[in-house]
Amino acid sequence: MRVALAGGGTAGHIEPALSLADALMRIDPQTQIMCLGTERGLETRLVPMRGYELGTIPAVPLPRRLTPKLLSVPGKLASAISAAGGHLSRLGADVLVGFGGYVATPGYLAARRRRIPVVVHEANPLPGLANRLGARLTGHVYTGHPHCDIRNGRFIGIPLREQISSLDRLAMGDKARAHFGLRPELPTLLIFGGSQGAQAVNAAAFAAADRFTAAGVQVLHVVGPNNADEPEDRTRDGVPYVVVPYVDRMDLAYAAADVAMCRSGALTCAELTAVGLPGAFVPLPIGNGEQRLNAEPIVDAGGGLLVENNDLTPDWIGQNLIPLLTDTDKVVAMSEAASRMGRRDADMELAREVLAVARGERGDPAPEPVPDDIEADEDESFVDDGKDAR
């Protein structure tokens, strides 16, 4: 099979696409895969690093307001569709799978022109413009959130890296803590704010450092590559507080932790529930509120806490998070609740669906007509749909 994957811009689009690619290769190592992306997104680094071919197309930003820049959109979109079509023809694609973001819209339209079957995966509870368009072109639409309202959508979960989905946190715990210089017997908090870090989360954690030390809670704090150049050891009174710019082994970070304090991007929520790690979720305070929607089902099921960005203070940490970390029975109960919400096999399930579509084994209802004057809602874009990696 020859499969094209369209999802670029942020890791929130790229990582599920690459996890699907890995699953397809596990099913059939002879599968030919090409990822569509731009020359400036994270895909230029992530795709080759995972061993897949990258076919680049022009980025097509859609202005969020009525400005003269709107006049340039049709020409740029036509150029991107043409470039995407060239890659699809060169690959001889049997199917195109889109994940939203930079390149999904040109990919969907190029595939439709060539009568190539389209599969859409929407990770978020509020679908972006690109995937709402894609869902009008195909009946093969899969979602990562159980309450996503998108045409023809069927909940399947978010494809995750096998490194994460197969993780046994209990078995790896001691090894993971040793890897980061943490003690094996202390309650451990993992703090991270997405691929670039989160200033409010970082600031609140540092301000609460003395409280962590006093309670005997050790911390692994991933501050983001823009906020530190080198790892830093802030251990006090024998209680480790390890600061690192970036972690390339999130499986070990998850295995080392008892609880995570983090944003609630779709991928983060999917990974934490898959590995059964309770989260203290701090939704991103901008955008359309989808990060809160990501976290709410987990919190309602007893697998996490939710705190608004402005309410995340050292006092909140001292009154809510530290008592949780020092209550082993409660941590275990929350871990079990989080795990019940997880989907570990979404990558393989989606891969099997994609191959069935490519082989013509899945019926596809007639697509809706797509108007020529596709309009964008406020805060949406052909570029990114406003989504973040974690």
Mean pLDDT: 89
CATH T-level topology of the largest domain = Rossmann fold
What is the end-to-end distance?
Answer: 31 Å
Helix/strand-derived class? alpha/beta
Which value, in Å, is the CA radius of gyration? 21 Å
Which stretches of 5+ consecutive residues score pLDDT under 50? 371-390
Major β-sheet strand ordering: 3-2-1-4-5-6-7
Shape: elongated
Please work out how many helical segments DSSP would assign: 15
Tell me which CATH architecture of the largest domain applies here.
Answer: 3-Layer(aba) Sandwich
Report on the structure:
The structure is a single chain. This protein has 2 domains: 2-162 and 344-358, 3-Layer(aba) Sandwich (Rossmann fold); 167-340, Glycogen Phosphorylase B (Rossmann fold, 3-Layer(aba) Sandwich), CATH 3.40.50.2000. Helices cover 40% and strands 16% of the residues. It is built from 15 helices and 14 strands. The strands form 2 sheets. The protein has a 7-stranded parallel β-sheet with strand order 3-2-1-4-5-6-7, sandwiched between helices. A 7-stranded mixed β-sheet has the order 10-11-9-8-12-13-14, sandwiched between helices. The longest helix has 19 residues, at 73-91. The two termini are 31 Å apart.
